[in-house]
Structures are given as structure tokens and as C-alpha cells.
Design goal:
The protein is built from 8 helices and 11 strands. The protein has 361 residues and is α+β, with helices and mostly antiparallel strands. The longest helix is centred in the middle third of the chain and has 17 residues. This is PAS domain-containing protein.
Length: 361
């Protein structure tokens, strides 16, 4: 992969404290800002913000959390580790996920990619004045996922709200409480099954249960083809002009989540092809047609050790296993193990991000 900033974006997660400490950084942070992930974890993300924008970015951190916002895109400058590189104009996506703020950081430059990212975001914030040309919204576009109705806290000092304040005049606040239920997943974008690499909490699904498994294990079978098509679209968006993995805006959808999961590698058995043809003079009954279908079974269905009818029993067992294996541990899926969720999908250089929340409809 070309390591120039225009080709990469990294996934970042920060906490709810006023310092916005890094909780997670994907490896592409090195390509964009020159830092290894372990150099940033536990430190304040605000230390990378340009001094002229520090106060406004800190206030944005507060308001994004207190208003429980999702898919907010902000343009601001962040410091590169190499002092000769200075500050880089970045596009930062931010979504509140219950007790952390998750998103991505990418190089911001005018062009179709920036316009697409801005047009799919729920809200765009321009912190760096020179980034004004990057703001773009389709005319009269409705909000694809309205925010939760949570009243913001009022524990903000009276010095907030001024552009280019000094660090001393920046707002201060106690660690904010958890917001509405949301879970963030980071998926392997380079695999067909999109293995789950990271899960932010246990609110919708158990972290220990889902880590390392296919994302589609937790998508109901009836929605699997639809969700796969969404992810294919998100992957196609997340490609830069050179055909390399990059960031690619936001997609919104709704599907049924299986809390305990299932084995998505099990596919339904192929139906027996019909041998009835219109216009053919036949006196066979339905039972006779079923008998013919059984006689036409391929020979590998029969077991020499199982005696007559063993192949039929094997096929029945396979059908039952397919029908009943809605979770890896077996057993039929109960209503309390299924949840309709709203989802935000986004692509990044080294992963896909999926934000889930219980659907209100």
C-alpha cells in the first residue's frame, strides 16, 4: 500500500473524559500521522490538535457526547510526529457508542471522495477555516438516523464557544456518563466473512462470543444476502483513486441481529429439481413423484454401514441441523435472542466499522 496520507485512514476510539484519551488506534495511524498505536494509547488525543483549534475541538468532543450524536464529520488539523510534516488537515468521523467515542481519521483534500464523505454524514463541522470548501450536503437531505432524545448536560464552564481560544480558556467537565446503547464492531475488510476484530462492549452481543467469528454469524439468515450487499457497496466506496483501501463515507441500514449467533457457513440443502413438465401425459401422483425424487438421489447419500434408508436419515439430520443451528451452541433461536438493530457502516484503510443500536421501529 502507498503510505502517502491521501491513501490511508485509521480507526480511533477515545474515552469520555475531557482529555479524550485514546483507547484504540488501528495500525494505519502510522501511515497518516507517523505514530505507532502503542505510542498513543492512554494519551490525550487533544495533544495532536492544532493550538488555534484546541478549544473548539474540545468543545466539539463534549457536545458530540452529551448530544449522543452519530456519524458526525469534522475537519481539523492534527500534528504529525515528524515536525517537518507539521499539521495535517484531517477529516474525523465520530459516533457515540455508549461509553466511548469511535470513528476514523483520514487525510482531507478537495475532490469527489471528500464530497461523498460529507454528503453521507449526518452532520459536518468545519473547525479549520480553510476546509470550508469540503462541506457538502445534498439538497434537503433528511437525517438517515435521527439521534436519540437525550438532553445534554449543563456542566460546562462559561468560557466555551469561542474560536481560537487559548488552551487555558478551554471548557472543562467531569467524565460524562454512559449514553444510549450502541455497540461498535471492527471487521476484517479483506475477508469474505468479515471476521470481528474488535467489539466495544457487551450491550448487544457478548464480546467473548463474537470475537474472531464471522460477522454474518450474527446476522439472521433471512437478512444475510441483503447485509452482504451493503458491505460490498461500502467496500467499493472505501477505495481511493488508485484502487487502494481508504475511507468511504457512511451507509445506513436495518437488520435482525442474532445475539448468540449461528454458524453462517451452513448452507441450506439444494432443493430436489422437479421432473414434471407441462404438456406431458403423466398419471403419477404426488406420492409417486416424491418416490421418484428419492430414487434419483445421488449415490453418495447412501451409507454402506447404515443399511437401507441411512442416506434419507442423514439428509433429514442435515436439514434439522441447518434449521436448528441458529447459534453455535445449537438450539432454536428464541425471540429474546433476536433484535432489530439500526446500523451505520463505514470503510477504512485497515477495517470496516459497524455501529449497532436497538431499533426504535
Amino acid at each position: 500500500m502507498d503510505s502517502s496520507p491521501a491513501c490511508v485512514s485509521f480507526i480511533g476510539i477515545v474515552d469520555f473524559t475531557e482529555d479524550a484519551n485514546w483507547v484504540y488506534c488501528s495500525e494505519s495511524v502510522y501511515d497518516l500521522l507517523g505514530y505507532e498505536p502503542h505510542e498513543l494509547i492512554g494519551t490525550s488525543s487533544l495533544l495532536l490538535v492544532h493550538p488555534d483549534e484546541f478549544s473548539e475541538v474540545k468543545e466539539l468532543h463534549y457536545t458530540t457526547i452529551s448530544a449522543d450524536q452519530a456519524a458526525v464529520l469534522a475537519y481539523l488539523r492534527m500534528k504529525h510526529k515528524d515536525p517537518y510534516r507539521g499539521y495535517i488537515l484531517c477529516g474525523i468521523s465520530r459516533t457515540v457508542c455508549q461509553n466511548v467515542l469511535v470513528g476514523s481519521v483520514s487525510f482531507a483534500a478537495p475532490g469527489p471522495k471528500a464530497m461523498h464523505n460529507a454528503s453521507t454524514a449526518q452532520e459536518v463541522k468545519i473547525i479549520t477555516p480553510t476546509a470550508k470548501d469540503l462541506e457538502f450536503r445534498r439538497w434537503n437531505d433528511p437525517n438517515p438516523m435521527p439521534p436519540c432524545n437525550i438532553a445534554p448536560s449543563r456542566s460546562v464552564s462559561p468560557d466555551h464557544g469561542r474560536r481560537r481560544d487559548t488552551r487555558a480558556k478551554a471548557i472543562s467537565f467531569d467524565p460524562l456518563p454512559e449514553m444510549s446503547v450502541r455497540t461498535a464492531l471492527i471487521l476484517d475488510r479483506f475477508s469474505v466473512n468479515c471476521g470481528i476484530l474488535y467489539c466495544s462492549n457487551d450491550s448487544l452481543m457478548s464480546t467473548t462470543t463474537c470475537m474472531g467469528r464471522s460477522f454474518f454469524d450474527f446476522v439472521s439468515r433471512k437478512d444475510e444476502d441483503l447485509v452482504r450487499s451493503w458491505i460490498d457497496v461500502i467496500k467499493s466506496w472505501g477505495v481511493n483513486e488508485r484502487g487502494q483501501p481508504s475511507d468511504g463515507g457512511f451507509g445506513f441500514g436495518k437488520f435482525t441481529l442474532l445475539v448468540r449467533g449461528r454458524d453462517s457457513s451452513i448452507r441450506p440443502p439444494d432443493p430436489v429439481p422437479s421432473r414434471h413438465r407441462s404438456g406431458t401425459n403423466t398419471h403419477s401422483t404426488d406420492s409417486h413423484q416424491q418416490s421418484r425424487a428419492r430414487d434419483a438421489r445421488p449415490p453418495y447419500h447412501h451409507s454402506s454401514s447404515g443399511g437401507p434408508g441411512a442416506g434419507h436419515r442423514d439428509r433429514e439430520r442435515e436439514r434439522d441441523r441447518y434449521r436448528d443451528r441458529d447459534s453455535r451452541g445449537g438450539g432454536r433461536t428464541r425471540a429474546d435472542e433476536e433484535r432489530i438493530v439500526d446500523a451505520i457502516f463505514s470503510a477504512h484503510s485497515d477495517g470496516l466499522m459497524v455501529i449497532l443500536r436497538p431499533s426504535s421501529t
